Amino acid sequence: MKSDPDYADAWAWLSSIYRDEHRFNFNPRPDPLDRALDAARRAVDLDPSSQVAHHTLAEIYFYRHELDGFFVEAERTVALNPNDALTLAGLGDKLHYAGELQTPTPTPKRSSPLAVGALLALGKQAYLVRRGDQRALAPSRAGLSDRRGLRRLVNAVQ
């Protein structure tokens, strides 16, 4: 960061580290999600075309329970690169838990063999959804508002 303070992806990854402080209680410093939000916003400001920056900002909004911001940034992330399997898997998982997807996460048009591993992590959930298992649909019953535009955008990359 000292050698290149305008490197957007570095700010995005720093934001992810702060997010993980919150998720895993790694650091006793206060307000990790506030620090994560500041770093993610800086990343987006530095490079508005960075998928990494927008994806990170979407994740931070998700963990802050600011779902309107999450949906906006998730849409932007997918629009920037609809073929990134890891991003689609991560966002698809969060969309499901936000109550937006009742079907399995879509797969990208193209993906690398390494990215397929991320999609396999959602395989059990997809299997349960296809079977109609109520446990898989439980997060979708959160009753949050419908985001048809995002659903269409995500489904468009199937």
Short description:
This protein is mostly helical. The chain has nine helices and no strands.
Describe the protein.
The chain is mainly alpha-helical and 158 residues long. It has helices at 8-24, 32-46, 51-63, 67-80, 85-97, 113-120, 123-131, 134-137, 148-155. α1 (8-24) runs antiparallel to α2 and α3 (51-63) runs antiparallel to α4.
Mean pLDDT: 73
| Helicity, as a percent range | 55-70%
Q: Which oligomeric state applies? A: single chain
Rounded Rg = 16 Å
Q: Could you name the ranges where pLDDT drops below 50 across 5 or more consecutive residues?
A: 102-121, 139-158
User: What's the helix count?
Assistant: 9
Q: Kindly, what is the distance between the CA atoms of the first and last residues, rounded to a whole number of angstroms?
A: 37 Å
- Give the overall shape: globular
**Helix vs. strand class:** mainly alpha
Helix-strand topology string: HHHHHHHHH
Q: Major β-sheet, in short?
A: none
Total number of β-strand segments?
A: 0
Work out the strand percent: under 5%
Annotate the secondary structure layout:
Blueprint: H1 8-24, H2 32-46, H3 51-63, H4 67-80, H5 85-97, H6 113-120, H7 123-131, H8 134-137, H9 148-155
Helix pairs in contact: 1-2, 1-3, 2-3, 3-4, 4-5, 5-6
Which features characterize this protein?
mainly alpha; disordered C terminus; 158 residues; 64% helix; globular; 9 helices
